[in-house]
Amino acid sequence: MPIRIPADLPAQEILNGENIFVMDMMRAAHQDIRPLEVGILNLMPNKIETEVQILRLLSNTPLQINIDLIRIDNQAPKNTPKAHMDAFYHAFDDVADKRYDGLIVTGAPLAHLEYEDVKYWDRMTTIMDWARRHVQSTMFLCWAAHAAIYHFYGINRRLREDKLVGVFSHRVQDDKNELMRGFDPQFDAPHSRYGEIPASAYDDVEELEVLATSAHTGPYLIASLDKRLVFVTGHPEYDPDTLEQEYWRDVQAGLAPKVPQHYFVNDDPSNDKNVTWRSHGTLLFTNWLNYFVYQNTPYDLNTLSSSSS
User: Fold this and answer.
1) Is 47 annotated as a binding residue?
2) Is 235 a catalytic residue?
3) Which of these is catalytic: 37, 51, 237, 246?
4) Among candidate residues 141, 142, 234, the one with its CA nearest the CA of residue 188
5) What pTM did the predictor assign?
């Protein structure tokens, strides 16, 4: 089944070219089915690229999904046309009264700022608290995952001296959890971040379970026992060339970046890339939609119960 997006969203042409089934709103309106309502709070500078990455992962499900793209403020992002934002994005205030089956909050390039120094931190905390009341299950990615863990549980990240960047091996910690269904015991996932939270920080938080971790990256996938919150500290949504683009961008900016580990063959940027994470990235989003969202959400979203951490 398709995801439902605005007819003129640029992602539609890209996804159609990949034989991914997307449906415009006019066609979807004639289907007698209650679709899932999923919001995407996109904090990344290149909105269009991130839209395509996440929509691709959401599309591999038999469920029909209505997508709302949400912006956190009215500032024009550097790498996305204003016309695109005006045409396809909702201001948070315009959807604040709505309830969602699922919400995805992307990462953001805010590695070296204290959370309280982020210009939209107050709005971010408002949205996170709102999601606990208005959303069945919320998935936080990379920076947003650490920010949400800090907000809800008071666990602060520490900053590495060097950037953790590359494709790393992870191990499933609880293969009985529905989010891990179908996962191999060991799987790969990309990371690109400075922040980290050690596994020991979660030991005393009874509401959370670490579902997958790595000796190199620390906890990768953490979820609340009520399935309302999911924290992913990496980037399962990344395209095959995203880390490559980030690397050469930083080279051209004179930042002398580290070569992403285990990404280029023999860690040589002139070689081909090892793309080993996409199947598990798709499976993660599919499991989340099925077991954490669809299987638990009420048919009438107005009856969605509040939850407190």
Assistant:
1) no
2) yes
3) 237
4) 234
5) 0.88
Cα distance between residue 246 and residue 27, in whole Å: 37
In the residue annotation, 178 being an active-site residue is answered as no
Please write the tens of the pLDDT for every residue from 68-97: 999 999 887 888 999 999 999 999 999 999
Close Cβ partners of 262 (under 8 Å, ≥ 6 residues apart) = 166, 167, 168, 169, 188, 274
The band of 265, judged by pLDDT with boundaries at 50, 70 and 90, is: very high
Check the annotation: does 249 bind a ligand. yes
Map out the domains of the chain with their CATH numbers.
3-159+171-239+277-303 (3.40.50.880), 241-274 (no CATH)
| Annotation says 18 is catalytic | no
Catalytic site residue from 134, 142, 191, 246: 142
Q: Which residue in the list 146, 170, 191, 235 is annotated as catalytic?
A: 235
Chain centroid offset of residue 161 CA: 25
- The CA distance from 288 to 197, in Å, is 23
